[in-house]
Amino acid sequence: MPAQLPTAVDFQLPEGWSPASPETCDSFGVSFAALHPHPDDGFTANITLDGEVPARDTPLTDLADTSLELLAQTAESVHVVDRREVGPADAPALVQRVVLEAAVEHERRDLAQTQVYLPLVDTDDPHKYAVIKLALTSTTEQHHEVLEDFQAFVRTVRPSAQEEN
Questions:
Q1: Per-residue pLDDT of the chain (165 residues; tens, 9 = 90+)
Q2: Who is most buried in 47, 139, 154, 156, counting CB within 10 A?
Q3: 49 burial class (0-12, 13-18, 19+ CB within 10 angstroms)?
Q4: Per the domain annotation, does 1 fall within a domain?
Q5: pLDDT at position 78, please?
Q6: Domain for residue 15, yes or no?
Q7: The pTM is what?
Q8: 57 Rama class: left (phi>0) / alpha (psi -120 to 50) / beta
Q9: Which contacts of 47-50 are long-range, i.e. CB under 8 A and separated by 24 or more positions?
Q10: Is residue 117 within 8 Å of residue 127, measured between CB atoms?
């Protein structure tokens, strides 16, 4: 069973993307995953969601660094192409773009990953704070094609008005 997000969120998948099975989410180690309808050279672009409850004063850059360390454990190489804070001061987010070389189903792949770290305050309990990590992973060749979908997806992510039971 995939891990639950630390706070409930609502979002809208881009047209054509479909939710992955719970087994796929488990294999990715995330709470939710969606798959692009058109694989590129045998690799299916994916959007994943995961989250954690860090201390409120934890810099988003620390969370991004931890993600890089985890990627480095499974990838042959990992390089940060871009990292920047975005959004207003009262609602900051962090965007990190990474290129990596990894073995996928015993085949070496050049992949690109765009990560967004989005701090959220629970709508029912403002004392509850979480950071949701959204990631788009694709081949480097397909990344420009699916990035617009990912950006549209990120714009729809909001704290859920109601917690699921």
A1: 456 788 888 999 999 999 999 998 898 889 999 999 999 988 999 999 999 999 888 999 999 999 999 999 988 999 999 999 998 877 789 999 999 998 887 888 899 999 999 998 877 777 778 999 999 999 999 999 999 999 999 999 988 875 444
A2: 47
A3: buried
A4: no
A5: 95
A6: yes
A7: 0.91
A8: alpha
A9: 47/13, 47/17, 47/134, 47/135, 47/136, 47/149, 47/150, 47/153, 48/133, 48/134, 48/135, 48/137, 49/5, 49/9, 49/11, 49/132, 49/133, 49/134, 49/157, 50/3, 50/5, 50/132, 50/133, 50/135
A10: no
We report the CATH number of the domain holding residue 112 as 3.40.1000.10
User: Does any domain span residue 165?
Assistant: no
State residue 66 phi and psi, 5-degree precision: -65, -40
Domain count across the chain: 1
| Helix and strand numbers, DSSP H then E, in the chain | 3, 9
* 89 is a domain residue: yes
